């Protein structure tokens, strides 16, 4: 797994968000960096906020890309100095992760939705254009598929080429580079794209209603025969892989597509392209929410933590036309953003 770390160093202090210059006269407060970990998808947004926040306040911020799953694991190790203050996540925290937090005394967690993202299936700009149904996605990437639309006896996926499962698709080998099991992008892809695709198979739609565990076995387990290749946590490296392998596809977040539109393009899913407005409205079938979580207890031990969360939700950061909007974050509605701003200001424990 690739870990990325950005340390935002000391700069001149400028008052902002109620931070007082006198509060930085204590050397301990100056040296106590805010530590942010988690999702590689949220990483570019988090680092941008860290840089802007540092420029305005002088607070040190360390941002690490560990993947959503890895972030939640580290976040839940405890509270206070020496533990992460905030974790980024490209999905909601799972019940098992919340329970793990509680076991370690991490009980007062504040959840902040920061915006939306689409999960895209992309290929090189000069490669053929794909128009996929969600059923195609499931039939291409699932390890086990039904014998037929009406017979849900599962067997190993036999498809080797896209044209084998849908004659309208290119006659290319099925080869997709996707995020690893620790990634929130992978979790969201499985839960949204794979599940919805599986439910397009009539017998699996019935199974969804009668035996959820059996349905999830069919929908969630990805191929291990070379058709799906775990590509690590770096979406930038994935973009380079697609350029070097023009017949391959890659699964990544919309923000990376937006930043690399001169190199790669996205497949349509259900006839819908992953565009800003269509992700925000939910019309694009593989849309998701992005989150950060921080510890109420650490607000007392980590100067600037609450103010960092407020900056994340500020108009200039995550509002329409804000600096995060400019690098690919799809913003919340004003009403929804104000709800989370209120939770942060009041330190309202809103999770689960």
TrEMBL record:
According to the UniProt entry, the coiled-coil residues are none
Q: Which InterPro entries match?
A: PBP_domain, Phosphate_ABC_transporter
Q: Which Gene3D superfamilies match?
A: Periplasmic binding protein-like II
Residue span(s) of domain PBP: 32-316
Against Pfam families, the record matches this protein to: PBP_like_2 (PF12849)
Q: Which SUPFAM superfamilies match?
A: Periplasmic binding protein-like II (SSF53850)
According to UniProt, the name of this protein is: Phosphate ABC transporter substrate-binding protein (PhoT family)
């Amino acid at each position: 797994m690739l870990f990325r770390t950005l340390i935002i160093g000391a700069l001149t202090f400028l008052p902002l968000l109620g931070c007082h210059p006198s509060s930085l006269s204590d050397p301990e407060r100056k040296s106590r960096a805010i530590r942010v970990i988690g999702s590689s998808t949220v990483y570019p947004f988090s680092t941008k906020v860290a840089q802007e926040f540092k420029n305005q306040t002088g607070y040190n911020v360390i941002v690490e890309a560990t993947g959503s799953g890895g972030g939640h694991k580290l976040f839940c190790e405890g509270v206070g100095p020496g533990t992460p203050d905030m974790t980024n996540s490209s999905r909601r925290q799972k019940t098992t992760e919340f329970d793990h937090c509680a076991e370690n005394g991490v009980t007062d967690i504040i959840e902040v939705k920061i915006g939306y993202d689409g999960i895209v299936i992309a290929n090189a700009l000069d490669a053929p254009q794909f128009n996929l149904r969600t059923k195609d996605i499931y039939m291409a990437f699932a390890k086990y598929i039904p014998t037929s639309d009406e017979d849900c006896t599962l067997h190993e996926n036999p498809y080797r080429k896209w044209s084998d499962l849908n004659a309208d698709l290119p006659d290319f080998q099925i080869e997709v580079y996707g995020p690893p099991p620790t990634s929130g992008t992978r979790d969201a892809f499985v839960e949204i794209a794979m599940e919805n695709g599986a439910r397009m198979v009539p017998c699996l739609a019935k199974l969804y209603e009668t035996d959820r565990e059996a349905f999830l076995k069919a929908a969630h387990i990805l191929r291990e025969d070379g058709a799906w290749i775990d590509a690590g946590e770096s979406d930038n490296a994935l973009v380079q892989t697609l350029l070097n392998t023009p017949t391959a596809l890659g699964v990544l977040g919309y923000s990376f597509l937006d930043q690399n539109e001169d190199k790669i393009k996205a497949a349509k899913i259900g006839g819908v392209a992953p565009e800003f407005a269509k992700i925000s409205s939910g019309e694009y079938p593989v849309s998701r929410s992005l989150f950060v979580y921080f510890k109420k207890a650490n607000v007392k031990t980590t100067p600037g933590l609450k103010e960092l969360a407020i900056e994340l939700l500020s108009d200039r950061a995550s509002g329409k036309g804000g600096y995060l909007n400019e690098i690919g974050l799809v913003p919340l509605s004003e009403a929804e953003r104000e709800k989370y701003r209120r939770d942060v200001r009041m330190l309202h424990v809103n999770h689960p």
